Amino acid sequence: MPISTREIQLASRPHGEPTQDNFALAEVALPDPQPGEIAVRNLAMSVDPYMRGRMNDAPSYAPPWQLGEAARGGAIGEVTASQSPDVAVGSLVLHDRGWREHAVLPASEAFVVPRRDGLSPTLYLGALGMPGRTAYVGLFRIAAFQPGDTVFVSAAAGAVGSMVGQLAKLSGAARVIGSAGSQDKIDFLLNDLGFDAAFNYHDGPAARLLAQAAPDGIDVYFDNVGGEQLEAAIGAMKLHGRIAVCGQISGYNASSPQPGPRNLGLFVSRRLAMKGFLVFEHDDLADEFTQQVSGWLTEGKIKTRETVVDGLDQAVDAFIGMLRGANTGKMIITL
Amino acid sequence: MPISTREIQLASRPHGEPTQDNFALAEVALPDPQPGEIAVRNLAMSVDPYMRGRMNDAPSYAPPWQLGEAARGGAIGEVTASQSPDVAVGSLVLHDRGWREHAVLPASEAFVVPRRDGLSPTLYLGALGMPGRTAYVGLFRIAAFQPGDTVFVSAAAGAVGSMVGQLAKLSGAARVIGSAGSQDKIDFLLNDLGFDAAFNYHDGPAARLLAQAAPDGIDVYFDNVGGEQLEAAIGAMKLHGRIAVCGQISGYNASSPQPGPRNLGLFVSRRLAMKGFLVFEHDDLADEFTQQVSGWLTEGKIKTRETVVDGLDQAVDAFIGMLRGANTGKMIITL
């Protein structure tokens, strides 16, 4: 155990897009674990779009980060010391004390996860973790996916979107369409993940691009971005279409309200449904998800790509880049 | 049986708000009923907001009215001749050949309804008919109303809205709030229908008026108008709030798309759900509805007000006025 460790603290709250100045890399003393606690050496931490909301001092589902304190977020690590009978030294644990190289936390707030042959532990931050479970809950429960559905997902090359498309294909979707922001991502969707169609949302009005990619309309839209693509999706909806609202990253950095879709009248004429959700309210699906997805991963039926950035001192740049779309697949910071 | 009768035909399609010129009052020959048909003397006809959509030549749930042909819509009448063993002369029937004084139609397209002691047959066009059933389906099935909910309904003094509020109160709502466009309507909501709070949407920003009327937020919004009030309702939603989208009358006469709500980001943070619906897809609730609501009407627990206009030659003005909000309660044309 080192006696000091590095962590990233919130230095100030952003107005609009976050900058390096909103964060500070600090060297802090690492306490010894007290009874009931464990010490963890973090192997990797997650940067996720929802973290932008935690930078604001506003009540939300995830508590705001506090000024002058280390940021939080998903991390995977190895237990180096334990004062708990429930967690053995050497265990692999998933927990929420990311943004730091070492963490001391109550054993009750860490989840021991198995080491799986051939599968990287970092998958617990992506396909096998919160992003994968978010895709699973949103597609199957919130959007009530049925075999034969045509599914559109935005931010499709991201950690959640890439899982949504693959889960839909593996479950009998008639057609899966994804949108992303670069040719490299479009190639990834079409060539690696087996999407039926994909478009770069920079190439023109989303409504036109989606109409070309889904000429017969869509049954399900998995919304990661909001804004123009949400309006396009509503316009492309078939009768009884369903929208799972997972995130609206297009507005996360906005400092004034963004215009909403102008075609909500279609909700009545086409009997549409739109639901927002948070994965942590659907823990009852966690076992089903893990069993299903770990199987598909082991069989090679689900492909993953990680954008890996090494070192805590790179984490802030990586986070800001992810909000701009710099990642393909799950963005991971190795520590 | 007269040999001729009067009907209102669609003369041209409107751009924006309809005018008298879009309609023509015509004298037409009345055919004798053929085998399987009945002849009906209409007692009253309905004018409803959804009819605005039927004036457009665009595919929708209700087929467009055809140029040079009589308009259609709900009507209640007495059977004057019958060539069907299923419908006796003298029966009271509900059917879709409104906008005319007499109608000849297949018996299979008419619904024989009972004459109920003390209840006006025109209730079959309002509280006991399509508007009442729309309120019932939207509140209980689409918005999944639960006792203890706080409910907000727009166009609350209209045929549907006045039922939504009363059904919610009778079913254990914690608080019912309505909006309408005149002081007379507000008085009606508060003094006659038992709403807990009501506001005139002309009195200021809807978000402020709603926050005053529902300081603790709302669980259910029954949307009849869309636009600014929808945005206000989303902003006032509590966690897991539900929106039933019944209509969006604020946009019906618009000739360009109206801006959408700017606060859809709340769908995730508050896990909101919004669903559009059409009553005719929920016929399985019709018997339950009729039994429940006819009982409450007979017991005097549901109050109704009709805005009655007499004569087919007044129907167009009445329809145009209803789109502007001239009615309190159900608007009926007696014939």
Q: What does this entry look like structurally?
A:
The structure is a homodimer of 335-residue chains. Chain A is of the alpha/beta class and 335 residues long. Chain A contains 9 helices and 15 strands. In chain A, strands 3, 4, 5, 6, 7, 14 and 15 form a 7-stranded mixed sheet that branches. In chain A, strands 10-9-8-11-12-13 form a 6-stranded parallel sheet, with helices on both faces. A two-stranded antiparallel sheet of chain A has the order 1-2. The radius of gyration of chain A is 20 Å and the shape is globular. Chains A and B meet through helix 7 and strand 13 of A and helix 7 and strand 13 of B.
Helix content of chain A: 10-25%
Number of helices of chain A: 9
Number of strands of chain A: 15
For the record, the count of structural domains of chain A works out to 2
Oligomeric state: homodimer
CATH superfamily of the largest domain in chain A: Medium-chain alcohol dehydrogenases, catalytic domain
Q: Predict the CATH topology of the largest domain in chain A.
A: Quinone Oxidoreductase, Chain A, domain 1
Q: Would you list the SSEs of chain A in sequence order as H and E?
A: EEEHEEEEHEHEHEHEHEHEHEHE
Profile the largest sheet of chain A. 7 strands, mixed
Considering residues with a beta carbon less than 8 A from a beta carbon on another chain, report the largest interface and each chain's count: A-B, 34 and 34 residues
CATH architecture of the largest domain in chain A: Alpha-Beta Complex
**Rg for CA atoms of chain A:** 20 Å
Estimate the global geometry of chain A from the Cα principal axes. globular
Instruction: Return the CATH class of the largest domain in chain A.
Output: Alpha Beta
Unreliable stretches of chain A: none
The helix/strand class of chain A is alpha/beta
Termini of chain A, distance in Å? 16 Å
